[in-house]
Amino acid sequence: MRLLRLVIILAVGLATLSAATAALADEPGGVTLKPIPPGEKAPGQDSVVLSAQLTSDDSPIAGMPVTFYVVTTVFGERLMKVGEALSDATGTASVLYRPTWDGDITAVARFGGSANYPATQASFHFQATDTVSPWEPPKFGLEPIRQWLPFAVGLAVLAVLGSLGYALGTTVLGIPAAAGRAPATQPLPPWDSRVRRPMPVGRALLGMAVLLAVAAVPAAMLIGRARAPDDVTLSTQSIHYEHDGMPVGGVSPGAQPAPLPETEPLAATLVRSVQTTVFDASGQPAAGSVSMPADVAITAGRIRILDANKGRVITVTPDGTLATILDAAQYGDLSLHGAEAMTALGERLFIAASDGTIIVVKSSGAVEGVIRPVVPAGQAPLTPGGIAVSETGEIWISDTANHRVILMNDSGEFEQVIGSGAPADGDAEFNAPGGITFDDDGNIYVVDTGNHVVKKFSPMGVFLERIGEGRLGQPSSVAVDSDGRVFVSDESAAVVSAFGPDGTYLGSIGQGQLQAPHGVKIEKGLVYVMDRLAGLFVYEAQPPAAASRQ
Amino acid sequence: MAVAVRRAKENTRVTVSRRRLLQGLGGIAALAAAGGLGIARRPFSSASGPAPKAKTKRRWGMVIDLRRCDGCKECTGACQNTHYLPNDHEWIKVYEVEQENGGKVFMPRPCMQCENPPCLKVCPVGATFKNDEGVILVDQDICIGCRLCMAACPYNARYFNYWEQPKPPGPFDNPMPEYPVPQRRGTVGKCVLCVHYTQMGRLPACVEACRMDAIYIADLETGVMTNRSGETYDLYTYLKENDAFRYKEELNTAPKVWYVTGHGQSLDG
Amino acid sequence: MALAIERDDLRAAAVRPIVSPGALFWPLMIVFSMIVLGGAVAFLEQLQSGLGVTGLNQRVSWGFYITDMVFFIGVSYGGAVTSAILRLTNAPWRAPLARMAEAMALVTLMIGSLFPIIDLGRPDRMYNLLLHGQVGSPVLWDVVAINTYMAATLIFLMLPLIPDIAFCRDHLGPAAGRMRKLLYDRLSLGWQGTAQQKHILERNMTIVAVTIIPLAVMVHSVLAWLFGMTVRPGWNSTIFAPYFVVGALFSGVAAVILVVATFRKAYNLDAFITEQHFKYLANILLALGMGYAYFLFAETLTEGYKMEGFGAGEGSGALLQETLLGKYAPLFWGFVLGGLALPIAILALPPTRKIPGIVAASALVVVAMWLKRFLIVVPAMATPIMPVGWGAYFPSRVEIAVTLAAAAAVPLLLMLFFRFFPIISIYEMEEVAEHESERPPQSATAEVL
Question: Which of A142, A175, A181, A186 to mutate to test the interface with C (most CBs of C within 10 A)?
């Protein structure tokens, strides 16, 4: 067993933390759970004792269950239960834990409460080094023999080939060489005259060629019948293949919406377009180019593009070129990979990273800070698909894989949750929500991608209405202009569709230009569309006064 | 009452770390103090610095709790949707095992990601390979479609593309072993344990779709197993405590999918 | 088809099919060509649409094509037996049969080795076997073994053919035509029959004969291991390799009997191939048949005694139940009775041990062995290995067309072959006659020649 050395780092800091934690955990008439940081361990031990002391007003509470967790980072931050123990006479509960990864480990002790005492929780850290993974690759057996067997067989094959080659070689070379006078052989008797003359080989081959040509006609007909299964009928439910009139296979790509009506154009002028992604010969984003950017935001009058695959934020300079303002690789411990949503407030950008943290970036590109969501125990980590930030410090996040929308404060604590966590289509429910935005009145618009609709909520989170029903295929992002028009990017239709304040369909922009529109933002009346493939497009939609729809 | 769980800083190779370390700790202390005193905070001023994210070595496996599985087959559907598969390709297939005393046990069977995979051994062109995280993948650019791997797999976990597949919508025309979409005609496909998701910290499609939270994704290196609702356990303890077993492990395939059954349940057909 | 009566001269008889193949030659060629063409068209359809045009599915992913592969390659073993083994054991009666047997071996081997390619999902990527070949894979062993064996068979056919070609070059005259003359000039390698040339030939024939026997054993063993290296019920058997080898020899000798009987009739070779030849072949066939029956019995008894997995509806027990008493019972018992019991009886009992009986028994064996290959491949794949029901397989018209095309290609290619090369190995006949004349002529075999 490897020696596991546990080092308490910066005891002062931890002491502060414990003290602060203890202070925070204190409640009037309540219970304190004081973690006991693990000390130095003896050589040869690979486990650490996690313990905590449960007291109430300084007197120990015995016989209560305390559960210990360790924070894992395999899929975002999750609490992994490592054991449960009853507190002893001194109120101390301990479990043995064997760390399986190096680095800083956060342990959490939790008392679930009882009839007399409220629940409480405390955490502490320790460093783990030289941990040994419990996993060992299994052996297959017959080790030394299996290494050498291919060689032995190869030798045998070579021997066989060698002897065959020798036989062939000496024959082909030796026989002509050994030609000489030979004993005369008896000639054949003359052929009977009744024997038919044989058909010469040449004419025989010609005859067969004619035969093949004649047979080619039915053959071509048969081949014509052989069709690849491209008799594809796209139905609302699934794609069918047929061969010889019999159905085979079939694709059921989930619940598809009913076929959408044709999009109608909304009068709009293309003010600007910026090519962002350049594809190389193999169809991949080229080395220096942006790679399928997800979102766009405008700060300090400049366009900022989220290039999550390359881990950076790009800006469009006044002369139209692209420049990197934030490169996550510069920060050894920052990752933008998988980030889908970015929004701006004043001079700041807010990027929702794939593990739910929000990275706050100044307009210069410097990272100002990181907000970590405080996911309540037992809940899944956030999978943000959209972010919207209000001036009062409220952060609305679409938690896509958990089918809900969360309001967080700037310390990451959840203040409100809309949605049950399971995919559904009720008023306050979602199925894979995506983009989220505010309008000027503070109403919240959430793109409910799985239900092909945009849902509008009041600033307090009360459901108001559905927008875009029956007109959206795969909506991803939404933005609202000062006239109340709602612009929704539709990835399957490859357009940005606009709806009036009352939900009527106004038209779509970008037909033929957009390929995979994802992010939509409105700034000073211009519609900025971030298309993953085609780049950035800026449109000026015709003012609503000209379109006389009610 | 929940207390913010903050990770202390780890020494990284980047020079800024020490400064951020002190900043961060100072921030935590300040927060703790401020929180304790109830001082109102300006928006976003309390954000602490970025935290370490080293790439850890993984070894993926699964645990399936058959006590919970109700045979809804959402996992099958989610996988087929994610990879644009035809109906006869069930990379995770839910078997219905009749029990002697009546009733059924449902058994989802993904690719077992064997450590001694028979499919890998018999592939004549090496199209089936094991990546560095222990996941068995198929390179459909190399596969010649001989189907010996299908004959060799004791779990029937491999599927052959008898027909051409339609092009999926969107920018998905770059099939690779990690995300073999669309499937290529004349080659073999199988569950890839959604490595295209796990590499960016997302759960595999079936894990995310299982509404009974029965499917866990596990990392054998760190011993962490978790499901879509966040239930996280230490893998080895869980396996021992729940009498988890691997299907047909007597064949020396060393599969990495464990099953947990209830009392009296049997997986014999 | 009787032609003008020729003198009973060996060499004349041997080369007669080259120049005057008979009235039925062209009609038969046309018929066989049409069948082959039909199979080619079906295969083109498969290339265009994918393997989905076959009856294969996710449960039973090997069917007719793999059956055909094992069958045709197995049938080619008749050549190995008749030529190589009998040569090494100095059995003089093999001489008139050798050419036909070797030619048949080559033809069926070539056809059989096409089937793995026909069965591939991506035959356009065959070169990957060279670029990315994995030494641990039975398919790769198969590729190496079959190609090596094909080379050996070709050499083994070619060596005694050289003197015969030289004979044709010297004596066929204008009857052969210009193209054949060119062919003979080239391929005879300047053979004059000198002692030194004969020495080279003899030595090399011995080398190849010795090499080809273990090679033949390995080829069918490797073919067996395509199945035997899996854990499927019915395939997970340690005796699969010798089982397949004996089965191949069995079907091969039966095929040799059929080919010899057919061409003997067609080209009036009664003088050289007598009933005694058939009796000897019948003895070999009988021995091999009993050997195969023994293997079948041993396998069935071992599986049946344990009935592994039967309670769960899986495993070799379930497979055996279906094979003996269930869905596949008609095929199985048809094989046992029609392909083993009846032929063995016919061959063993004196009243039926005549040429018609022997030929009939051989025909039964050939057909039944195809059936047995099917019974090896498909039911094992249909057997459940997970808790689910049985798979099913029914061949599509594409697979049937290709199989029939392969069957038709054998006589087609053989007939074509004997339009160019002597049907009886003149060289070997003369060699054996010399050999016999050196011995005191009291053995019965001397009468044969």
Answer: A175
* Dihedral angle of Cα C388, C394, C395, C396, to the nearest 10 degrees: -100
- The interaxial angle of helices C10-19 and C426-438, nearest 10 deg, is 170
Q: Do A185 and C4 touch (CB under 8 A)?
A: no
From chain A, the residues in CB contact with C135 under 8 A are 150, 153-154
Most confident of A82-96, A374-388, C212-226: C212-226
Per-residue b or e along B179-213, where b marks 16 or more CB atoms closer than 10 Å to that residue's CB: bbbbbbbbbbbbbbbbbbbbbebbbbbbbbbbebb
According to DSSP, the β-strands at A495-499 and A486-490 are: antiparallel
> CB-CB: which of A181, A192, A229 is closest to C49?
A229
CB contact under 8 A, A188 and C189: no
Inter-chain Cβ pairs, chain B and chain C, closer than 8 A: 140
Question: Domain tally for chain C?
Answer: 1
Nearest-angstrom CA–CA distance, A261 and A496: 15
Q: Give the residue carrying structure tokens 């109608």.
A: A264
| Other C-beta atoms lying within 10 Å of the C-beta of residue B78 | 20
Picking from B118, B251, B269, the nearest residue to C387 by CB comes out as B269
C57 touches B at CB < 8 Å: yes
Q: How many angstroms separate the CA of residue A141 from the nearest CA in chain C?
A: 15
Identify whether the C-beta of residue C215 lies closer than 8 Å to the C-beta of residue C330. Answer: no
pLDDT tens, residue by residue, C141-177: 999 999 999 999 999 999 999 999 998 888 887 777 8
Residue A80: Cβ within 10 Å count: 25
Give chains near A: 3+ CB pairs under 8 A. B, C
| CATH number of the structural domain spanning residue C356 | 1.20.1630.10
Single out the residue of C299, C293, C307, C298 nearest to residue C345, CA to CA.
C293
| pLDDT band, very low/low/confident/very high, at A243 (cuts 50, 70, 90) | very low
Q: What is the pLDDT of residues B19-68, one digit of tens each?
A: 333 333 333 334 334 333 323 333 333 334 333 344 568 999 999 999 99
Partner-chain residue, chosen from C19, C37, C41, that has the shortest CB–CB distance to A198: C19
The CATH number of B2-112+193-260 is: 3.30.70.20
A367 vs B12, B50, B86: nearest CB: B50
Which residues is A35 bridged to in the sheet?
A52
Distance of CA A231 to the CA centre of its chain: 33
